[in-house]
Amino acid sequence: MTMKRRTLLALTLATSLTAPSLALAQSDPIKIGLLATFEGAFTVLGEDGERGAMTAVDEFGGEVAGHEIEIIKGSSDASPDSAVRAARKLVEQDGVEILIGPLSGDEGIAIKDFAKTHPEVTFLNGSSAAQDTTLRDPADNFYRFSTDGAQWMAGLGDYAYDEKGYRKVATVAEDYSFPYTQVFGFMAEFCKAGGTVPSKSWVPIGNKDYSSVIAAIPDDVDAIYVALGGADAVNFLSQYYDAGGQAPLLGGSITVDQTVLTAKGRMKDVLVGTPAAGPTADTNDSEAWKEFTAAYKKQDGAFPSPSLFAHAYYVNMKAALLALEEVDGELSDDQQAFRDALSSLEFETPTGKVSLDDNRNAVADMYLTEVTEAEDGTLVNELVKVTPQVNQTLGIDKEEFMALGAVSRENPSCP
C-alpha cells in the first residue's frame, strides 16, 4: 500500500470557508518523518514498523489539537549511510519537524549523531536498539521510548542457567551494534550465574551461506544463542536444521519475532520450544495488548500478532502524538515545550508503563517467552515471566555498569 493511501493529509477546503479551526487544519499540518528499512534483508521488518506507527496515527484519528498529521516516509537498507541520507532528505528537503526512526542498531547511532546537526528537529527512535544510541554521548533532541537490546534480554540468561540447566552456550549473531547489545544483555546474566560462552560467530547482514558458521560451532555446547533477524534468521535456522543440528536454541528478540515465525519453511521444526526474551509476548492476555493487536490487524499485511518492530514504532509514534497533544501542537521556540513534555512523559503502552531516564531512554517491562504452536498452527511467543521496569543499566549501579565498557565483538567475554 502506498503512503499516499496510508497518510492522512490536510483537508481540502473550499476557499469560502474561513473558520479559524478549519484554516489551521488546512494551512498548518504537522509533518512527521517515518524512517524505516524498506529495502534489503530487513524490508519485512520495516514494513511492520510502518504498520505500528500508522496504528498510533489512526488511534488519534490522524490529527492532534486541530492539526492534521502528515506522514512522509523515508527508506533505508539498514546501513548507517542509507539512514542518514534518508533522514537528511526528510529534514532538509521535505521539512519534517519530527522524525520517527530508524529501525536497526548501527542506523540508530548514525541518526543520533545526525540529530546533533539539526537541533531544530526532534527525533524519536523507531526500533533501533543499540545500547550506545542513548547510553554514551547522547543527543539532546533524540528520545527512545522503546528500550535497548540489552534490556530486552532481561531474564533469559538466568532462565537458561537455572531452568534449562545450560552451562556452555555458543552465540551466532549479526556483526553490528544491536547484536553486540543483545549478546551483552544475555551474557550479563548467564555469565554472572556461572555459565560460559566459548564461541562467538559474527556474520554480516544479508549473509546467505552459513555452512562455515555452523561448522565452527563447538560440538560440546549445551545450546546456541542466536541473534539474527529477518532473512538472516530464516537462512541460518533452515541451514542449521538441514545440516542435522541438534543443539537447543536460545533466541535473541528478533530471531523469534513474528517476522521470522511466520516465514515459510521449517521454522516450526526448528524453533518450537525456544526460550527468548524481549519487549513483547504474543500470548500477553492484558486488555491493552489485546486492543493493540486488534487495532494493528486493521493494517494491510498485518501478522497474526504484532512484531516487536510494530510495537516499537507504535510506542515512539504514540509518545510523539501524546506530547503534541499536551502542548496543543505548538512547536515554536525550538520545540522546547514539546521536548519538555516528552522528557516528563509517562504512559501506559500495550506492554505496560513506560517512562524515560536522564538519557531519554525508556524504562519498561520485559517479557521472557518460549516459542509454542498455537491451536491454529501458527507459532507464537508464549509468556513465561514478566521482568518489571527494566532500566538501561539492568539494575546495576550506573558507575559500575559504565565500567563494564562499551559493547563489542569482544565485550563481554566469559570463555
Q: How many E-type strands?
A: 15
Largest sheet: 6 strands, mixed
Question: Structural class, from helix and strand content?
Answer: alpha/beta
* Radius of gyration computed on alpha carbons: 21 Å
Q: What would you note in describing this structure?
A:
By secondary structure, this protein is an alpha/beta fold. The protein folds into two domains: 3-147 and 286-364, Response regulator (Rossmann fold, 3-Layer(aba) Sandwich), CATH 3.40.50.2300; 151-284 and 365-402, Rossmann fold (3-Layer(aba) Sandwich), CATH 3.40.50.2300. It has helices at 3-6, 20-27, 43-59, 80-93, 105-115, 149-152, 156-162, 177-193, 211-216, 230-242, 258-261, 267-271, 287-296, 308-326, 332-344, 398-402; strands spanning 30-37, 63-64, 67-76, 98-100, 122-124, 142-143, 169-174, 200-203, 223-227, 249-251, 275-278, 347-349, 352-356, 362-373, 379-390. Strands 2-3-1-4-5-6 form a six-stranded mixed sheet. Strands 11, 12, 13, 14 and 15 form a five-stranded antiparallel sheet that branches. α3 runs parallel beside α14. The longest helix has 19 residues, at 308-326. It is globular.
Describe the structure using short key phrases:
Rossmann fold, 2 domains, 15 strands, six-stranded mixed beta sheet, 16 helices, globular, five-stranded antiparallel beta sheet, 415 residues, alpha/beta
How is this fold's topology laid out?
Layout: H1 3-6, H2 20-27, E1 30-37, H3 43-59, E2 63-64, E3 67-76, H4 80-93, E4 98-100, H5 105-115, E5 122-124, E6 142-143, H6 149-152, H7 156-162, E7 169-174, H8 177-193, E8 200-203, H9 211-216, E9 223-227, H10 230-242, E10 249-251, H11 258-261, H12 267-271, E11 275-278, H13 287-296, H14 308-326, H15 332-344, E12 347-349, E13 352-356, E14 362-373, E15 379-390, H16 398-402
Parallel strand pairs: 1-3, 1-4, 4-5, 5-6, 7-8, 7-9, 9-10
Antiparallel strand pairs: 2-3, 11-14, 12-13, 13-14, 14-15
Helix pairs in contact: 3-14, 4-5, 7-8, 14-15
